[in-house]
Write a structure and sequence with these properties.
alpha/beta, binds 4-phospho-D-erythronate
């Protein structure tokens, strides 16, 4: 069925909101662009909370831990508890610790930033790479000569990394030659919306590894249902009374549709366009869409 555009009529918006008790909110492209809040984000979230709705922040952005997200949300005037935040760095760390059960003598090689490192530390998982400045230095002759694959590497985990380097790729490539080394990605978004433009996303960081190793990472961010199950495990919500709000069809909306949620709501302030949402071959179709989140204020 074609999605309905909610245009701000009070009765229509109220009826939509009343269908749900829980709203899962994507962040980049829905609530903010970088560090800039989108129009009336705080007022819209306050309105939902005043109606007794539960809000959970579900982001694929792995550069921050849940604690760092809380700080960001607080700084932007959005009160939130750490437990109300699900980021792909957290879901990856939990997966490695509790699903893979990575043995204590094995470690994770990280292509990514401090969010991943902090969540791995919280789960007691050993790691290296990540934000280590040595990882950004150009490869020298001796690095090629002396490279010895580390048998303790059990996982290569790749997320958004603004400092990705040839050295990191070279090391990950060598570790992934071992078929027993797991290849995981926090998420595989091809692009990242910021300031009304698109930039390379985490999936564009892991793509060269797929090209060079012919291996495809298991992604632990949206639309992976491992993330949905983890959120449900924590909040015990009724999926039919839950709505996923997001800007991207192939992550957020697909996540909600495949998770069997009662509803999905797309906004046009991020990656997917109205044309893509209405296209007959849309990868996932939301129930409704809005020009911007604050249209929920009616
Ligand atoms: O490439 C990425 O990591 C993502 O584009 C980005 O961080 C998405 O974050 P979200 O829209 O899920 O908040």
């Amino acid at each position: 069925m074609a999605p309905t555009k909610l245009t701000g009529k009070h009765a229509e918006i109220s009826a939509f909101i009343d269908r749900f008790d829980v709203f899962l909110f994507d962040c980049d492209g829905v609530l903010w662009h970088g560090n800039t809040l989108l129009h009336k984000t705080v007022e819209t979230l306050d309105m939902l909370r005043s109606k007794g709705k539960q809000i959970v922040f579900v982001t694929n952005n792995s550069t921050k831990s849940r604690r760092a997200y809380k700080k960001k949300l607080d700084g932007l005037g959005i009160p939130a508890e750490v437990d109300e935040i699900f980021c792909s760095a957290y879901s990856s760390a939990v997966y490695i610790k509790r699903v893979v059960k990575l043995p204590a003598d094995k470690k994770v090689y990280v292509i990514g930033e401090s969010g991943i490192e902090e969540e791995l530390r919280n789960e007691g998982v050993q790691y290296f790479g990540g934000t280590d400045p040595e990882e950004r230095i150009q490869m020298q002759e001796e690095d090629y000569t002396n490279f010895v694959p580390d048998p303790e590497v059990g996982v290569v985990l790749c997320g958004l990394d603004h400092y990705v380097s040839y050295r990191k790729y070279a090391k990950a490539f060598q570790y992934l030659q071992n078929p027993e080394t797991l290849f995981l990605a926090t998420n595989v978004d091809s692009t990242f919306p910021n300031k009304g433009k698109l930039f390379p996303g985490a999936g564009s960081i892991s793509a060269p590894l797929t090209y060079m190793t012919k291996r495809v990472p298991l992604s632990l961010g949206k639309p992976s249902q491992a993330m949905m199950d983890a959120i449900e495990g924590k909040f015990q919500f009724n999926r039919k009374r839950t709505c996923m709000v997001g800007d991207r069809l192939n992550t957020d909306i697909k996540f909600g549709v495949e998770g069997g949620l009662g509803g999905t709501l797309a906004v046009l302030t991020g990656v997917s366009t109205e044309e893509e949402i209405l296209s007959s071959d849309a990868i996932a179709v939301p129930d409704a869409y809005l020009d911007q989140l604050s249209d929920l204020l009616g």
